[in-house]
Amino acid sequence: MSNNHVAYEFVSCAKLPTRFGEFTIHGFVETASQQEHVALSYGEWQTGDVVPIRIHSECLTGDALFSTRCDCGFQLEKALANIVEEGHGVILYLRQEGRGIGLLNKIKAYNLQDTGLDTVEANEHLGFDADLRDYSICKLMLDTLNVQKVQLMTNNPKKLNALEAMGINVVERKAIDHGVTDDNKHYLMTKTSKLGHVFNLEKLK
Ligand SMILES: Nc1nc2c(ncn2[C@@H]2O[C@H](COP(=O)(O)OP(=O)(O)OP(=O)(O)O)[C@@H](O)[C@H]2O)c(=O)[nH]1
Ligand SMILES: [Zn+2]
């Protein structure tokens, strides 16, 4: 499978019991860079069914280290719980840490934010665009899992547009605005004002 000049392949899958329920983990690799990505699937569906999915970008600090600087860990837990409640669904877990700048650059960006810059200004100060993510691998992941129509759990319309551009039918967007903390209110406000996120501003008061 290739998109523009990037080629990806499916490698293997295995059972993944979690605190939420038993998922299956599917491993994929971007051939040139050897960057590894995973999808988690739960339950069953038929060709053409609408499947709840989340495209989640890696955030080591939020997903694994309980950081409250962002909402990632809360969103991941909520998405896993939603999928189990719905009876089926998919998480595409993309290894694009720090919106694509990598973990150590994200720590540098956090350091700048500690001095007063916002998340976008910090990226730009380091010489990066605000968001470097590429969603092209999602097509192979969803094709492999036989998903053509989705309900997308996100506040980010760019993800919705990226999926539609690659021929995935996004039937519905479901807001995932859980995990507002005193530590991340400013960050969520900046995402809404500068990065095009759709967020219920009442929750940020
Ligand atoms: N560069 C940078 N990346 C960050 C920062 N805070 C979180 N991230 C990364 O941002 C990514 C998550 O993106 P978000 O902008 O929070 O949300 P989203 O994925 O665009 O949208 P949702 O689907 O609504 O969650 C993860 O890769 C995080 O590591 C930051 O201050 N700077
Ligand atoms: Zn995060």
Automatic annotation (TrEMBL):
- What this protein is called in its record is GTP cyclohydrolase-2
Instruction: Report the cofactors.
Output: Zn(2+)
Query: For binding GTP, which residues are annotated in this chain's numbering?
Result: 54-58, 75, 97-99, 119, 154, 159
Q: Which reaction is catalysed here?
A: GTP + 4 H2O = 2,5-diamino-6-hydroxy-4-(5-phosphoribosylamino)-pyrimidine + formate + 2 phosphate + 3 H(+)
Task: Report a single Gene Ontology molecular function.
Answer: GTP binding
Q: What class of enzyme is it?
A: hydrolase
Q: What does this protein do?
A: Catalyzes the conversion of GTP to 2,5-diamino-6-ribosylamino-4(3H)-pyrimidinone 5'-phosphate (DARP), formate and pyrophosphate.
Instruction: Provide a GO biological process annotation.
Output: riboflavin biosynthetic process
Q: Which GO terms describe its cellular component?
A: cytosol
**Organism field:** Agaribacter marinus
**Recorded family membership:** Belongs to the GTP cyclohydrolase II family.
Binding note for cofactor? Binds 1 zinc ion per subunit.
EC number(s): the record gives: 3.5.4.25
Can you give the residue ranges of the GTP cyclohydrolase II domain?
13-173
Its annotated pathway reads:
Cofactor biosynthesis; riboflavin biosynthesis; 5-amino-6-(D-ribitylamino)uracil from GTP: step 1/4
Source species, domain of life: Bacteria
